Amino acid sequence: MSATATFQYAVRDRAGKVVTGKIEAESPAQVASKLKSMGYAPIKIAPVESGGLKKEISLPRIGSKVKLKELAVFSRQFSTMINSGLSMLRSLSILEEQQPNKVFAEVIGEIRGEVESGSALSTSMAKHPDVFDPLMINMIKAGEVGGFLDGVLNQIADNYEKEVRLRGKVKSAMTYPVAVLIMAILLSTGMLLFVVPTFAGLFASLGGSLPAPTQLLVNLSAFLKVAIVPLIILSIVFFFVWTRVKHTDRVRDFVDPLKLKAPVFGPLFQKIALARFCRNLGTMLSSGVPILQSLDIVADTSGNKVITHAVRDIEESVRSGESLTQPLSQHAVFPAMVVQMLSVGEDTGALDAMLKKIADFYDQEVEATTEQMTALIEPLMIAVLGGLVGSMIIALYLPIFKIFDLIGQN
């Protein structure tokens, strides 16, 4: 049996566009045969040099992460092409050509090459866990086995599009307060570094004691002038350390419960986690993925460790032969409405439909909550910013009332 090699090719498609790529085959003739069967006209076929100075160097992919929105568009277009009668290889080739993200286009090209070599689509995607999550891979595997891949891809696209909308709503609600907070920090820092020292010099030249608020402001300015560089360095170090440890189990086990107990944002975080859990579990069950496998996958997709631990308990309950909803009442993160609706869905055999209804309900709740929070936070942040800057100005001008007395004494 002949060994396979990697060949680099340049072909012209039916629209006359030149397409390049790599493929594994036993000989250039086999490469040409494969390309012709895909509807391409070969222009150049050459073996890829793998040794010496021509060996490819793989550099880390920095700043080229595949976004959730790109996965949603990919799934929607893939489903449409397959449903229209295009072959899987032809669909993947078109998706690779029109993909603006070069990293994602390269991944699609690798998947197309593996599928062409005889691998299953889900198996090929599983080799790229940094792009395709287990939820998508297992749903596609169920679609391949059941023969309804286009329908599964449509469900994946729906799921991702709803997740994109959910994230967009949360970001829109958080953008304004974060922007105002940053503005308040910059204004306060600028006044303490540049404005307060000028007034401090004026007060010192005139003599006399300063009011307590003004003295506090002068002391803060003196401290900040010395500590500004260490504070910036510590902030940068904290940022890099936090990005590395924020997804670890120890940190999430501590932070995630605090998120749900936060005064204003806690209920919002709970609704987001419940919406993700119900939507992902309902989508997997309706796609034909076994319930134990579905629970194992969705345990880590809600974005909160409290939900994860609860789902693990549910998984153990189902594995031991008990009902799905029995352990839910033991976890306060699941409201009574969710428990009752899932119990009815389990009894009637429509658990997947009930999960999607709950997810839609919490999506609407998240939208309403974010709108209320935005309407409430905007005036509060303006008041905080105005109060902060105003109090600093008042503290600076308090000694002005004594200036004339001090001038008369001098």
Q: Layout of SSEs?
A:
Layout: E1 5-12, E2 18-25, H1 28-37, E3 41-47, H2 68-83, H3 88-98, H4 102-116, H5 121-126, H6 134-146, H7 149-206, H8 212-245, H9 249-261, H10 266-286, H11 291-298, H12 305-319, H13 336-348, H14 351-397, H15 400-409
Antiparallel strand pairs: 1-2, 1-3
Description of the structure:
The protein is mainly alpha-helical. Helices cover 71% and strands 6% of the residues. It has helices at residues 28-37, 68-83, 88-98, 102-116, 121-126, 134-146, 149-206, 212-245, 249-261, 266-286, 291-298, 305-319, 336-348, 351-397, 400-409, and strands at residues 5-12, 18-25, 41-47. Strands 2-1-3 form a 3-stranded antiparallel beta sheet. It is extended and about 95 Å long.
Share in helix = over 70%
- The spatial strand order of the largest sheet comes to 2-1-3
| Average pLDDT, all residues | 80
Largest sheet: 3 strands, antiparallel
Distance between the termini: 105 Å
- Tally the helices: 15
Count of strand segments: 3
> SSE order, as H and E?
EEHEHHHHHHHHHHHHHH
Structural class: mainly alpha
- Beta-strand residue percentage: 5-15%
What best-fitting shape do the alpha-carbon axes yield?
extended
Radius of gyration: 30 Å
Uncertain regions spanning at least 5 consecutive residues: 51-64
Brief summary:
The protein is mainly alpha-helical and 410 residues long.
Write out key terms for the chains shown.
410 residues, mainly alpha, three-stranded antiparallel sheet, 6% strand
